[in-house]
Structure formats: structure tokens, C-alpha cells
Records
---
Amino acid sequence: MPIWNPDFECMERSDLDKLQGERLKQIAAYAYHKIPIYRRKFEELGIAPDDINGLDDLGRLPFTTKQDLRDEYPFNNFAVPVEEVVRLHASSGTTGKPTVGGYTQNDLDLWAEVMARTVTSCGVTSKDVAHNAYGYGLFTGGLGFHLGYQTVGATVVPVSGGLTRRQLMLMEDFGATVITCTPSYSLVLAEEAAELGIDFKSRMKVRVGIFGAEPWTEEMRVKIENRLNLEAYDIYGLTEIIGPGVSVECEHHNGMHIFEDHFLPEIIDPKTGGQLPFGEEGELVFTTLTKEAMPVIRYRTRDRTVLHQEKCACGRTMVRMEKVRGRTDDMLIVRGVNVFPSLIEKALLSVDGLEPQYQIILDRPKDRLDKLEIWVEASLTFFEPIDTQALENLRKTAENELSQTLGISARVKLMGPSTIERSIGKAVRVVDKRKLYND
Ligand code: ADP
Ligand code: ZN
């Protein structure tokens, strides 16, 4: 498969290390001189830009947290005057102020470059019609993909999220060959199509889907690929670093290649902050090596994953990150046991007869133990006509599977088709009612 920029994406490791080292030195000095919060952080650690001479010094640099960026809201963490910023984005920030992303023209060119690499990695060319259902607006997904499609010369359809029926009509009429949206929204499209009697195989030309912005398991990939009759690629990114375009899978689907000539990754132990070797799970941390408006040093993403450095069969030398396993802050503690939402998804989707639509409900009835309940939809066949015995068996199988995987018991509530709320963007998987009493 073609590679957009082989000079960088397939660079010899030793050359890449050297390039990263030089860029790290530059960006450390740039951040120190241009952004007060970094000068403060350097001084607190008793270091100066001259102490940073290459990759080996990465661990000496201070971390940046989401809170640090929030404290500088809206523009105090910019390295350039706002006049030089040509675009602003922001993360959804459901509570409090959002995190802002600022871009100079050079930053937008960089974004176009990494997004061109991204879509090319998923097999997109100038011949494709790309149906882009990520939200356009402050969210980085829509406009980020838009840049990438434009750069490779694909025909981009900037449909954004919502109006699902109309989306299906446009996909069919325009002959979309590529679709981009959140994995959860791809299932909404599949569901609506099934309701309308539209068969993806015979009526749609879509062959590639690039899905991200929220965690999804391998089990979810299988469901999506079958229902939409396409090859599904995982893409990762975040507003603080650039938006989508930080990393993406290649045709081998063995992790997402990080464009590390621009975004330098590390894995750390979230408790101690110590660096962990390749192959070990921990919190993903990024340093932007080339960004102008908003460089960040050792940004703690709170996303949990594992990095691998072995060269990939596609020819790219760029480090691969495994699918995100969740966030360091999404671990639920239920009756003292650690429970990860991604494990719940894995367990549910391994049970035949359950749909990939679920919600995790946590409650703490007054003076009683935490209650973990999982609402999940059962397939339509159980309801036409309703088969209570089969549903009861299905519920028991699901509860068994969950207790095996999680090590604690969870109640399963089987729901009818289309009863759990659908989302056009990121799905809401966890409803933790316990917080209502504790906060
Ligand atoms: P918001 O803060 O509005 O959610 P962002 O788009 O910046 O906005 O969110 C970035 C976060 O989304 C990442 O830190 C990560 O937790 C999640 N994310 C993005 N892409 C993926 C992916 N492919 N798999 C898992 N999680 C992802
Ligand atoms: Zn590869």
C-alpha cells in the first residue's frame, strides 16, 4: 500500500532518534522562552534549556496536565500572539472550561500533512469519495479529516454528525467509498440502514471506515466490519496535541503508528511518573516536537496503552501504540474491585445474541454495597415474538461471562432493540450515580 511520506514514515531508527533529539532541544528552549508556565515549571525543577541536549534528557522535563492547560485558559499557554493564530478548536469539556487548541498556518500545514499520512495509511487515494460524519465545529474531528482528504485529493463530503437517514441517502447517491465517524455512530448508521432495508453489501460502495475519538475493542471491530461491510481502521488523537492525526493503523492492524517525528511518545507509570520500557502498559505521554502556537511538553493524556518499537511489515518504522485500553481515570472501583469499562465491552460482545449497545450503571443504594448493573440490548430475534425463556438464558450467560472476566458479580438487564440512547459523537458508556451522594 502507498505511504504518503516514506522519507519520514520509514526513516531509519538511528536517524529518527537524532531528529527527535534535535527537535526536542529546540522545542524545550522555545517553550521556556515563549510560555510563562513552562519557564515556571523549568525553574521549579532547577533546569534550564541548556540542560536538554537530546532524547536521553526527556525524563528531566516537567509534565503538563490537563489542569495546567485549563489554568491557562484561554490563551496563556500559546507561544505566539493571538494575531498569529489562524484557527481555534476546543475539546468538548463537559464540566467547566474546555481545553483550547490554537493553530498557526504552519500548524495547519502540519495537521494537513499528518492527516494525509493518516488517510493514506488506511488506503484512501484521490479516487475516493469520503463521507466525513465527524462533527464539524470546535471539535477537531470534522475539520481535521477534512484537511487530510483535501490534501490527498479525495472527494470529501463534509456531512458532519446527525440526520442519519439523510446520511445513508447521501452515502448511496454519492457513492461513498470511505466513511469516518466515531465507532459508536457507525453502528447507528448500520442500524438505521437495517431498519430501512438498505443492505450495505449490495447498495453501498463503502470499503474503508476510519473510526476513533473513543475507545473500542477488537470485538467491536468485528461487529462493525460485518454490519457495514468494510475494513475498519482505528485512529487516535487529542485536541491538546493536534486533534486526529497523532496515530493510525496501517493495513496490518497491529497497533497505531505514531507520527513520532512530530509527536514524541512515552509510557509512564501514572503513580510514580517514571518512564516504562516498550511493551509495558502505562499512561501515554506526548511532547510535540514541531508545533508553533501551542507546543506541549510531556503532556499526560491519561490514556492507557502499550508501545511497540519493532519495525512493521508495512515498512513504517514509526512506533506503534496498542488500542487504547481506557483512561487512567476511567477505572471504576466497585466494592473495592477495579473494573475497566473496556473489559465489560469485551465480555458482552463475546456473548452471542447481545448487541453492541450497552451502558454501565453504578449505584450506591443508601447504606448498601455498590450495585453494578449493565444494560445491554438483546438481538431483535428474541422479541419477534418475545421468547422469555431464551432471554432468561441469555441473561444468565451474560452474567456468567461478566463475573468470569471482572471477578465480581454484575447484574445484567436485557433491553429491547433501540432502547439505549444513541450518540452522534462519543458514546456515554458509564453512568455513575454514586457521585450524586458523595460529592
Ligand atoms: P474531548 O475532550 O472533547 O473528548 P478530544 O477529541 O480531544 O476531545 O478527546 C481526546 C480523547 O479521546 C483522547 O485522550 C482519548 O481518551 C480519546 N480517544 C481519541 N481517539 C481514541 C481512540 N482511537 N481510541 C480510544 N480513545 C480515543
Ligand atoms: Zn504498519
---
Amino acid sequence: MLSKRLAAVAEFIPTGSRLLDVGSDHAYLPIALVQSGRIDFAVAGEVVQGPYESALTNVAQEGLDNQIRVRLANGLAALEASDGITAISICGMGGRLIAEILDKGRAQLAGVQRLILQPNNREDDLRLWLATNSFTIVAESILQENDKIYEIIVAEPGQMALTPDQTRFGVYLPQESSAIFQEKWSRELAKLDYALTQVPLEHEDQRLVLIDKISKIKEICHAS
Ligand code: SAM
């Protein structure tokens, strides 16, 4: 069974997609999607030998070798033109690493209709990459599992202009302003409040940066 996080990611994979899952580790996501009938072809790409082997073993054990190709490859190098990939998922990594993987594989993105991304941090860097590389965010989600809070960003080819607030807080998440969104930013607020107590009064520039970040969170989250 998929974790709550990967189950939430699975909801954004269009039915009938030909999926490349980058950093597939145990290949849990492609296996679940094929077994549920949502998709019938996937490539599970993994750059590290150990996780690659566990993906291979799991796919073989489930008897899915015909539908899921497991490849030892760095990022989008797992993709072959004949795969006809229409959707790419990259989950469980830092936002900067996801952006780096997409950037290195830009040439392979033609024909891809949807990116389903689940950064563990630095969502702002990932949103910026999407905006500057002709992708538009079509959906966002936020969830909590085992005390960790995760964001999911879904993008499709298109143009998007992001404000600094949208880059940092999200395009849809602030409007929805769910309890988990509020929790994420109240945790950040607590960190910044603490950081501010550690900066001596004479370091005015540093304090102003923190004060600015704190008031922005309060403004977006309507916190007092
Ligand atoms: N995607 C799974 C998930 O969300 O549960 C696994 C997440 S695991 C934390 C990250 C995986 O991505 C690791 O197995 C790691 O080896 C793999 N990885 C990191 N960089 C990669 C790259 N450039 N290409 C392919 N796989 C990569």
C-alpha cells in the first residue's frame, strides 16, 4: 500500500499516462498505479544501485516486467524516445535537486504533458524553475504524514508569471489556506521568531530581513 504522501501524488497522475518516475527507489508508485489500472506503462528510473535493485525485484515479484521498465539512470536520462512518456513524477527530494534534474533533462521534456513533483523543501526554487522554463502550475496540494508536511506541485506546459509571494507560498495553497498550510507556516514563523531573538540589536540589516519575512507570513496566513 502506498504511503499517504505517494497516494496523494498518485491522484495527480492522469489516467492512461505513460509515466516516468524519477528516483523510483522501490518502484512503489509505478507498481501501485499499474495495479490499480490507472496506467499501463511506466519507466522507473533510479540512479543508485541499491534502490535500483529493489525496484527491479519488486517489479519482478509483482509480475509487472512487461509494463514497468526499471532503468539505472541519472534523472531524465532514463527516458527513451520510444517510451512515449506523457507524465513525469519526481518525489521525495529537495526542490533544488528536482529543478536540477529537470534542467539537465530539458531536451527530453518535449511531448511531456504533465509534471507531478513532490519537493521536500525549497518549493520556491522549483516554482521559479517551472516559471522560467515554460511550465504553468495547474494544481498544488499540501499534506501531513508522520509530523512531516509535504507539498505537491503539478505543472503542465504553458506560461506563468509568479509574484514573489506565489513563488514562496504557492499559487493555490494560500487561497485554500488549509489547516496544514497554516501549520507549515506557523512552524516557519516560530523558527524565524527564534532566529530574531538570536540576532543582536546592532545587526539591524539582518534583523530587518527576518522582520520582513515574519510580517509576510503573518500577512499571508492572517496570523497575529
Ligand atoms: N520517489 C520515492 C519516494 O518519493 O518515496 C523515493 C524518494 S528517495 C528519498 C529519493 C530517491 O531518488 C533515491 O532512491 C535516490 O537514489 C534517487 N535519486 C536522487 N537523485 C536522482 C537522480 N538524479 N536520478 C535518479 N534518481 C535519483
